Amino acid sequence: MGISTFSRRQALAIAAAAVVMPKLGAAEEVVDLNWDDLLPEGQTGLAQSLQGVVQHDQSALASQQPEATGFRSDWNGKIVRLPGYMVPIEYEGTGVTAFLLVPFIGACVHVPPPPANQLVLVQTNEPYESEGLFEAVNVTGMFGASASSLQIADVGYVISAEKIAPFY
Q: What is the pTM of this model?
């Protein structure tokens, strides 16, 4: 699955954000987020409640995605750090250049995707040498609420990554 799965307009917007975004420096404040921070105020723990057994012989997993109940724009344009699991969708050579950051192992592949407000599309100019599907990573970069529809799920957020590191 390549970049053709999202619209050209979305791909251009992500690429433009990556070019305009300043390089991370020691003086810039990085906001540490967790997955509950992406949910509307008053909601918590949604990601854990979505995990469960999937009937793989039924309809496509994307069609089983629950509807998002709202989005947060508090961190639009800010540099954030968010841990999660990588679902690669675009490669350059052996490095990943676009992926979904998901809150739990199996999301979008083995279980239905979580709501769009629990999925982040990550784009990076520097290919990341992934160790495989669902690698745990910390992503640091410019954050934005930006709805997009991919073949495997609807996504509510985007990060133009400046740094991707294994998360232990």
A: 0.75
